[in-house]
Here is the input.
Amino acid sequence: MNRRSGNWGEKLIDFSRRNIRIWSLLGPGGALSTAAMELGEVKPEVQMMTADLNYYSGLKRFSKAYPGRLINVGIAEQNLIGVAAGLAKEGYMPFANTYASFCASRCVDQIRVNMAYMKLPIKLIGLSAGLDAGVLGATHMAVEDLAVMRSLPNITVLSPADCTEIIKAILASSETLDPTYIRLTGPMNMPIVYNEDYDFQIGKAVEIRQGRDICIIATGSMVYHAVRAAELLEIKGISCAVINMHTVKPLDTEAVDAMQDKKMIVTVEEASIIGGLGSAVAEYLALQKNRPYQIMLGIRDSFPTAGSYDYLLKQCRLTGEQIAEDIISALSRE
Amino acid sequence: MLGMRRMIGPAVKDIIERENEKVLFVTADTGRYFAYDDLLRTCPEHVVDVGIAEQNLIGASAGLQSEGFNVFAVTYATFLTARALEQIRVNLGYMGMGVKLLGEAGGMADGNFSMTHMALEDFSNARNIPNMTVISPADGMELVKTLVALSHMEGPAYMRITGRFPIPVIYKEDYDFQIGKAVTLREGKDITMISNGTLLGEVLKAAEMLATQGIDCKVINLHTVKPLDTEALRAVAGYKLVVTAEEHMLYGGLGSALAEFYAQEPARPRMLMLSVGTEYPKAQEYDDLLKACGLDAESMANRIVEEIQKL
Amino acid sequence: MKSREELEAMARRIRLSIAQMTWQSGLKGAHLGGSMSVTDILAVLYGEILHYDVQNPLSPERDRLILSKAHAAVALYAALHEAGFLSKDDIDHALQGDSPYFEHPKMDPTHGIEFSGGSLGQGLSLGMGTALGLKMKGNTAAKVYVILGDGECDEGQIWEAAAAVPHFGLTNVTVIVDDNGLQFDGRKEDILKAGDPAARWASLGYDVCTVNGHDVEAVRAVLLRETEKPRVIIAKTVKGKGVSFAENDVTWHTGRLTDELYQEAIRDINHD
Here is the structure.
């Protein structure tokens, strides 16, 4: 990447089709690494932090390029948040990462006090959110992180759809002092949603696909699968819009309003159907007159058994084909 | 009427003596809050205190439960559902250990200690754990019934207690209590108000105020937030407005649970979700906090009138 | 350097403020016991040791004090009043109505309160992060002081941070343990034995010493010691110190002062 002049880090990364394909191959860790390298260059206040997941989070390259700017606190997630808070108070912008399952459960009290209450500018990155680390079993599957983070005040919750969007989300979050949680879903060889550069703004959903009959509001890894499902539904004569709700909090309620005339709204997330994106949309629609029928697809209220990512997606009915099937059954019920 | 927390020590002692001798009272340096002195004196082998260590509280409780005991793990609601959330998820949710969590100062009861001691996301955090029962009793009578029911229940549960002394009396006479079964406290035909915990005292008062304005409110005590009493919810789906009231942040709690439920139903009533809101309230006395968040009877009644005018 | 009498007089004034704030909070009460035990330490810190400037409260060179055992808030407010950060009016209205000074400190660096507190076990992590930030900025002037409770050391997170401070070479950190031997449910040694805390801290790489937490000159002397390692000062204290009916009494973790008890407390404090 050649350095060019510009006051926003993103302008220094070339969002070419070629790079987009490379990032997709590398997966979320590679995307995090790319964004980190950029932040290291343009934002001296940024500190990367981890809880013994230096290699897993793809930050080995960063730690070599920017010595002293990756802080590893060891397997100590509560301390991770507290140390991030101390650094933030001293004028730094810490980007702290650990497994999303630990963000959402091991250090919630610390997130609550330091991010939600004290509003310190900590950016928390949840690695392997959803089912990506599923081979390790339920302890490493983060399915409630959206719910936990959403109920806490003052925390922006981002859930990027592909590796390109991961980079944009991380860079965009560095432009605010808002405490932020960024959940990274998807495997290496993460499917591409955006083939070319586009305008990303925190809080503004992206209409990926237009449609008349129904609308799928998806987030994270599920955006790709939602598009697949929409294509399959088109063949069956059902015209399906797809919205990428990358910012789960604050929810883009205007984007939801625009879809209220549809026969049915479908929310899809690689997360529990309790408390997450589906819940956010349902909470908003509940206040409206004549709210459309909504079905919530995601991980049902149970712990999936350990398995590979692809196996688990199928078990949880989150492939494009299965999403299309579930939509068709719901339409026939309604 | 005692505050709820000071009823717990004596109630657990009673349960040990009369219902289930395998019950243990396990706490993280907060035993005295729950008036456990008598329990400690008469059945010390039923009390375990792990010190100010909530994560260890859950692990130790799970270990005890796996050895055949019936554990009540007792401390502040927020330290259970935020500080020890992973331990609860893994031991109670994932491994299914039937520990019963009793959380004091649910909502804003200890509000003068600031949000650090207020549980305002506990419904959200607890209900997304698979296998967890989530419950908030309305008054002293319901508290005792809940504890007895929990002492005979297999699976894990989280019980939130609310309110400050003196807590309102909701049930003036005995009634049939079952975990998972909502209780209609007041019949009405215009709108339905659904709530739980001691806030029901304010909700019932609001219903009375609304009655004087010609608005007839049904009031339901949905003490069990998980599993939801879907029959009771379907029965009120035809009302022109369903109002939820909770001492909880706006997102993820009781209102959210109902919004999720109705979203997928053929009959989807319009909702109004009354809550603490989207910002932490300042540290204050409990009664002032209720007013500051619009959860006192008068504020709720006014808000409902406003909303009905928009329908 | 202040004389012993001056420091003791300051501690006395802090105790009187604590009693006043506890009494004026009415039925709520306050955390009297743990506030009285840390008073002499705070008197020495604010009277002699900490570098701060009330006219320039956010000065980067200021020392940072983190009261991890945040329920001793009234002691902190009283000390901050002595230092000039809080006014008499602030003290007279504390713990009442919508005063910003309530049971647990809320972050307000312009008034000397570095972080919000209340959930135990988190302050040493904040101290570690702060100290690391200072080190990275090349700020060798500012020091970080973290006050823990001995009961608070039950918490696991304390030890996550305890290992990290020396590991990251943060020699600008001083941990003071207000070791009053009691916690809410009883004596520390009856609730959860700590083994040999001095040895535990030392094994992690701290310079550890033990001191009588109510001897202002002894406390000052240990705080003035230069060391090459981060420090832990285990201050042996008495919960409720200065108020005869509360001393060493588990039930005075929190307590209410009636008019009579308040007068008795004032008499006790003035006689010390």
About this structure: Chain C has a mean pLDDT of 94. Chain C touches chain B through 29 residues (CB under 8 Å). Residues 29 and 256 of chain C are 4 Å apart (CA to CA). Residues 4-24 of chain C form the longest helix (21 residues).
